[in-house]
Amino acid sequence: MSNLQKIKPGMFLLPQEMGMRVPGLIIATEALLQDVEIEKPLDQVRNVAYLPGIVGYSIAMPDIHWGYGFPIGGVAATDVKTGVISPGGVGYDINCGVRLAVVPGAYRDLTENVKKELLHTIFKSIPSGVGHQHKGAGLSDKDFRALVEKGARWSIEQGYGFERDLEHIESHGRIEGANLDVVSDFAKSRGRNQLGSIGSGNHFIEIGEVRHLYRSEIASAWGIEQGQIYILIHSGSRGFGHQICQDTLNSFMKQGYADNLPDRQLVAAPLDSEAGQTYFQAMAAAANFAFNNRQQILHGVRQAFQRVCGISPEQIHLIYDVCHNIAKFEEHEVEGVKRKLCVHRKGATRAFGPGAKELAPIFRTTGQPVLVPGDMGRASHLMVGLGNPMTWCSSCHGAGRARSRAQSMKAWGGRDTIEYMRKQGVRVMACSSKTIAEEMPDAYKDVDSVVEAVQEAQLANMVAKLSPQLVVKG
Amino acid sequence: MTLNNIKRLFFALEVDAPWPEKLPEARTIDKTDRHMTVAFLGETDYEMMSSLLPSIPSLPFRVGMSAHFDRCLFLPERHPHVVAWRVNLWEGSVAIEKYQEQLFAWLRSHNLPVDTRNRFLPHVTLCRSPFMVGEWKQDFIPIPLIIKNLHLYESLGNVKYKPCWTQPLIVPFEEIEHTADIAFRVSGETSLQLYRNAFAALSFKFPKLLEFFSNPNAIGDVDEIVMRLNEAICLADATHGCPFKAVSFHGEIIRAEDQTLKWEMIVDV
Predict the structure, then answer these.
(1) Contact: A131, B206; criterion CB under 8 Å
(2) At the topology level of CATH, where does B173-268 sit?
(3) What's domain B3-168's architecture?
(4) Domain boundaries defined on chain B
């Protein structure tokens, strides 16, 4: 293992060496560091520390794994005047994120028939998997312009959800500065029919039971009860965001912005350059697309509950929606001085603590909800942010893969995974049996160990453990 | 010459493809036995043939090539008794034809029997009669294939074949471990072949990508390979949806000890 030095509970220092401008900071427990193939992602943490204008640390969360340029689970803040913005620090799936909603009533009160029908209704009404998208003409250019400018509000104006939802979305469902004029026609053509669809890979809709409350006073303040039905949605900006990332990488590469970096996948443009600003405007457009995407997916699930269980959409409360692939301008204290930074969170979640100005009143007293999906067999977690300045108020985003897709296919290909999961008490539907095989629980680390590390490092505290029961996989 | 030594022999290129799980009812050839015939010898003294094999002309390429099946054929045209899929070679068709001529000449020079009646038609036989023409026509979809090795096959009868000698080729691509995404080690003799073989690797996972294959005459560097592959992914996603987000700007093209080019391709999914 690399020369990591434990500096605090749950925190290890990766010393500054060679051309690193700052040291690395790894959030983990000793057990997690033993458990994972850590060297490649640690190299990526080192590489990120070379970025011009980086301040503090090059940070990695306990769900760290090898990613594109940045490790997945990577956080880096750059100074707005002297620093850069890197698409690799955001990822291809711009504003991939998670949203959690709760449904009145206990999960145990749902009959087997209702559960089955609910799952089928959600699966049929919300497109999931490769090639499954909405039919028809899709988004017009006018729609695109409105939705990237207004963020999630646009979908609410179209009837997908409620005004009150906006207070329960990170940045109120809108990243300022989005500009459709810098987005290619290719990106629009990829996203045109994909709004309101889950996509493929590890994206999902999960219905389950709030299994355990660790901090009942916070859960209660947020309107969450033990045994309650929850909805968890994981999706992003679909082809629209992927193409914006790709277009930017092509352009940055051609302009030579990868020169002098240890890995050209970190290609980054100065924040005050035209290239850097163009990327931010396009990224914000994709982020706002993603907020709308999750807003419309939740609408589909709310409709399914109404149809199958007679629960009206108004009764289903959005708890929170977080981005975990994003770059945002935030104000943080650096060596005692407030500075405006561009915080890249790639496979990491913002975790503002109590008192954060941006949060809605309900969360300003508690800290913001942090959503940590695990795998479809074991658990997901709801945490509360503590606003730890060492990580620029960031936390983990999931369990992190422990096994490649190829290994999962070898282990599960050809087996009846749906029946296997049913025997574990989880009903699963997906367009492709391959997806289920690739996403079986043992493909992931145990999320419990990840959230324990985050809690030990004082980035976020556990609030509730969620138990998946009905799952639609992408 | 003893009767025990007589075998029904032919030279063929072994192929691999993401074969459909289900094909129409017929006497189908096993996936592992499917091949592209280069020279059919028929009944031949195997002992004599094996003694000559060390002098067989070498293939004019070292890395297996990529191609795709573009049509369902029923052969021979008049009274068909086999169903075959036509191979659209992305490169090397002239090289294979020339090699076939060399092989014929070599066989003739050793007084070995060889059927030289038909011009080289790149195809892979899938099954032998009886079969339903309509079903095979309807079920055909273009899929990619790669050429793996040259074998001397023995026909065992009942659509079974056994390789009894091999001239190996370097595999065009192989999937390698990557925790979060998917990755391939791609090989080629030129950067153009790297691009083609990388395209085949992606098409093996998602055959609809073939609709967006472009076959340029030259490729500059790895960045151009990445951009071309991503253009196809973008078009496929806009048209059908696509399981790939993009091919990342990862890795350099490296010249290996065997002088072939290698590139580690990572695909964000």
Answers:
(1) no
(2) Archease, Possible Chaperone; Chain: A; domain 1 (3.55.10)
(3) Alpha-Beta Complex (3.90)
(4) 3-168, 173-268
A329, two tokens = 């301008």
ipTM of the shown complex: 0.86
For the cut 90, the answer to whether the pLDDT of residue A37 exceeds it is no
The pLDDT-based confidence of A402 (bands split at 50, 70, 90) is: confident
Gap between the Cα atoms of B152 and B171, Å rounded: 18
What pLDDT was estimated at residue A112?
97
The residues of A whose Cβ lies within 8 A of any Cβ of B are 37, 65-68, 72, 92-93, 129-133, 186, 189-190, 192, 194, 200-201, 239, 242-243, 245-246, 249-250, 253, 258, 264-265, 267, 401-407
CB B19 within 8 A of CB B30: no
Residue A35 has pLDDT above 80, yes or no: no
- Kindly report each contact of residues A222-227 with a partner whose C-beta sits within 8 Å and lies 24 or more positions away, as own/partner: A222/A319, A222/A362, A222/A366, A222/A369, A222/A463, A223/A102, A223/A317, A223/A319, A224/A102, A224/A319, A224/A382, A224/A463, A224/A464, A226/A464, A227/A106, A227/A107, A227/A108
Domains in chain A, start-ordered, CATH in brackets? 5-402+444-473 (3.90.1860.10)
Tell me whether the CATH fold assigned to B3-168 matches the one assigned to B173-268.
Answer: no
Residues A125-164 as b/e (b if ≥16 CB within 10 A, e otherwise) read ebbbbbbbbbeeebbeeebbbbbbbbbbbbbbeeebbbee
**Sign of the C-alpha dihedral, residues B178, A241, A376, A25?**
positive
Question: Are A214 and A462 a contacting pair, CB within 8 Å?
Answer: yes
B228 by DSSP, 3-state: which? helix
The one-letter amino acid code at A278 reads T
Q: Encode B62-71: b = buried (16+ Cβ within 10 Å), e = exposed.
A: ebbbbbbbee
pTM for this prediction = 0.91
- Is the pLDDT at B116 greater than 90? The verdict is no
User: Which whole number is the average pLDDT over A154-164?
Assistant: 97
- Are the C-beta atoms of residues A204 and A430 closer than 8 Å to each other? no
Question: B33-71, pLDDT tens digit by residue?
Answer: 999 999 999 999 999 999 999 999 999 999 999 999 999
Q: What 3 state SS string does A241-280 have?
A: HHHHHHHHHHHHHHCCCCCCCCCHHHCCEECCCHHHHHHH
Instruction: Work out the average pLDDT over A463-473.
Output: 97
pLDDT of residue A36: 58
Contacting residues of A for B222, CB less than 8 Å apart:
none
